[in-house]
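Researcher: Going back to the complex we discussed earlier. I've cleaned up the inputs and rechecked each line, so this should be the final set. Can you rerun the prediction on the complete assembly and write out the structure?
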Amino acid sequence: MPTILVVDDEKDIRDLIVLNLQREGFASLEAADGLEAFKLAKKKAPDLIILDLMMPHKDGLSTYRDLRDDSRTRGIPVIMLTARGRLEEKITGLESGADDYIVKPFSPRELMLRVRNLLRRTLDTGQSDVIEIGAFRLDKKNVKLHVDGNPIDLTTTEFKLLLVLTESPGIVKERAELLQKVWGYSDLIQTRTLDTHIKRLREKLEEHGSQIDTVRGVGYRFLEQANPGDDTDED
Amino acid sequence: MPTILVVDDEKDIRDLIVLNLQREGFASLEAADGLEAFKLAKKKAPDLIILDLMMPHKDGLSTYRDLRDDSRTRGIPVIMLTARGRLEEKITGLESGADDYIVKPFSPRELMLRVRNLLRRTLDTGQSDVIEIGAFRLDKKNVKLHVDGNPIDLTTTEFKLLLVLTESPGIVKERAELLQKVWGYSDLIQTRTLDTHIKRLREKLEEHGSQIDTVRGVGYRFLEQANPGDDTDED
DNA sequence: CCAAGTCGTGACGATTTCGTCACAGGAGAT
DNA sequence: ATCTCCTGTGACGAAATCGTCACGACTTGG
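Model: Rerun complete. Updated structure for the full complex:
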């Protein structure tokens, strides 16, 4: 059952939306301001967010930007509620494709229609399990990697390895954990298999910025790309 | 709330299906044989019909034909239940695009998935018989493919395969899913049938731009043609 | 500086997966 | 009935991918 986060400072409106969502069979979360919404979104990873743009304290628009800047919430589609003629123009500019907005006052039926449409687009087509780390975009369902929009062919094993590494960018993954999660090895095994695949991964990634760090005696660490746009040498 | 008519002579199976439908929030009607089903369908105009093909008295297949011959029931999508290897071949011929079928034994989850998909297709889009992907135009009703206006002859199997592939352009369809949706295979089957038809499809499409991508170990992916013609974008 | 441990690298064979082909059975058309 | 087209299947080779090994380079600690 999809979970939807409803963000509005007015309790009446929240209640109205939540009621309609329940009637449609959706679970819901509530937040009264942008900060709470952002924290809840990171923690609970809802399938969709309904976000009022007019709120005190923290503006809805800046909350939207925060959501788009965090890797954990980037993929979550957002429906924005806005008053007619207010921020409409600005919104249309920053839409990220997966998002939508609706002008107040709105009919609940209209809102529910958009919720269903948006969920259909994201849940069904599997675009929801796309992981983004810096310039990297890991498409799980597609077994495809894009860096700055450029597709990179990875084998399934390489992809799985990269997937595990990117679980925790900047943090070391032990050899044992990598072997466990990618190959299913349960024992501590002395093997060069991991090294070989790390090498192959590095080969395919190096032209897009060296990414995988060796931590001697421990394991490997995936680093976010430091300098995008630095592509002038090859040796 | 969509209403679904369940047609099966075995009460146990009806109960199982109805239970699952209720859990999903659907209203349901029941019929134990084809005649009753036909009358009920005309009278109540359900949004979808789940029809077992193996029934005493009146065969499911002839019931299906009756449903298609009557103007009041013609537009109602039908999901047919069939035993593996029995009537599969005959079904493939009369598939009218809006319909689906599933091979017994099936999982309730799988059935519910198809119910949702079929309802989504018909309720939302008002069952469009023509699908357009880039320069491709798939005419479900006439089982015809046009690329840039040029007609391409496809067999029914090829057409169905292409139809499933184009459900999600740019996204991989797993072999299992393709086998399931085109041939009704429920198990993971080691067969070269899929490959063969992919090849035949590729042969017919390649002169109009290579389209079908192999994702080793996963499945196939339909790619939109890079169209030399211009594309207009608007909101 | 030496020894031991660890890692990177290239090559190789084994295995898996896919593409292609030929062919036989079946359905529909003539 | 005969013909034609479509379809599924197995055989076989091609290609991709994988894991392992040997060996050299490097790091670390004493």
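Model: Worth noting: Chain A has a mean pLDDT of 76.
Researcher: Good, that matches what I expected from the previous run.
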